[in-house]
UniProtKB/TrEMBL annotation:
GO terms for cellular component: membrane. It is found in: Membrane. It comes from Suillus subaureus. The keyword Iron applies. This is Cytochrome P450. It comes from the Eukaryota. GO terms for molecular function: heme binding; iron ion binding; monooxygenase activity; oxidoreductase activity, acting on paired donors, with incorporation or reduction of molecular oxygen. InterPro entries: Cyt_P450, Cyt_P450_E_grp-IV, Cyt_P450_sf, Cytochrome_P450_monoxygenase.
Amino acid sequence: MKTSLTIAIPGSVKPLDNCSFGWRVQCRLFTCGTVDLRQSDSATVYEHWAQEYGVVYMIPSVLGQTRIVLADPRAIAHFYARESWTYVQTPLSLALIENLVGRGVLSSQGESHRRQRKALTPAFSNAAIRKLTSVFYDSAYKVKNVWDTDVESSKDGNAVIEVQNCDFKDESYLVRDGYLLCKLRKSRNSSLDTIGIAGFSHDFGSLDGKHASVTEVFDTFGNNSQASAVNQLFFLFASAFPIIAKIPNKRTKLSKKLNVTMGEISNDLLIRSRREKDVNMKESEEEKSIIGLLIKAEGQEAELHMSEDEILAQMKVLLLAGYETTSISLTWALIELSRHPDVQTRLREELLAFGPDPTYDQLKASLPYLDAVVHEILRLHPAVPEFTRCARVDDVIPLSEPVCTESGKMTDSISIAKGSLMVISIRAINRSLAIWGPDAKEFKPDRWLTEDGISGKAKEVQGHRHLLTFVDGPRTCLGKDFAIAEFKTVLLVLVKNFMFEMRDGPDTEVEIARGILPRPRVVGEDGIGVPLRVRRYE
């Protein structure tokens, strides 16, 4: 007989009188004691519950459903080792992913996922990324040149640049509080141009002012800041009835439009690449580029054959990931450096002392403080903050410390029934006081520079550098090294050449806005506005 799983959350779960209908549903489900999801990010709530109820606990969900939350490094390692086989995408996740990018490596499970991933792996090897470093630098210097022009255009060499606001069609300029305000999407477009050139040998030209239809759809996701409550209510009920995800609403229509737009671009790139394959590519080069590997997998005789639909889905995933995740990390880096001028100065000193632009291998091994800053950003601000999976079969998960079951017994493992919904909050684990120590919530790059900077409990977290940012196991992020190299390159060029401050001072409040993925936004700004005061470093 299986041991019953903890943990009915004790105490009454009360609605709040001043909730709107959408928020009232959430309040009934997720308000406990003094913790309210409306006032805290979900990671704070998850951590609070872990402190109160143990390293694994059960929370109520909509219409009588429950979810099991894992907050234990050993349990999480066990979970990730079995992801794609024992733990799979929920029906809602599959519906949303397929609506956005089609049926590719993100939505596949088991053997299908292994086959598709293996076909793409050579494109993300160290050797392949090493050859792409010049592409990263080209995009970074294009951003620098644009910002140079904007700073020169200001009357005192002090421009305010909104580094990710996209509620506009073309670049525009206006004066606010006596400063030139440059509304640019350049730091985001560097990611799009980079993945275009590096992955598909195609320059979207967005950094040069060319129109890219895909950016308009990407940008639209961040423009309606009033939709978050409705969206959360929609997803809440869709988790119980996935068919709801097929009901047209503003977000699903945008997802479908983005899918179609990315599909048209991907199809054009694929047709062009097929034609150019024999003329412009040697076999050795073809097999190491993303587009070359995809074309190779298209052949019926290919060992790791992919259908045309699968190939187009991979291309859409790469466009989406290349545009969103790295640009989110870069925005957070500029925010944290603006809030911590001492860290910004120390980083700039390391970069200037090093001299010429570093090679790929030097980026990895010769700039320890840059590496520390980048990984501290990845720790505090993962692009994907949490996810949910469904148990495909029964399982028993071991724990690093015992928990109390509903019957009052202590157990060091939990039995998971087929169909159970499992939640891991990446952001909560990356910021956990119990795992990372008393300074877990602080932006502290120095923790990465000493042997004892990472606490013993954090070392139990399996994943890249003890982080869950890129998850772990058979579904760990395939483009991890690509993303880190691009992130380091762009940040290096910008910090060497510019000084950054929050427009309204270091205590400026920043909140999370909902785009395709959660993005930072300065409180009070429209869309996903992050205005920074920028001046050239002399």
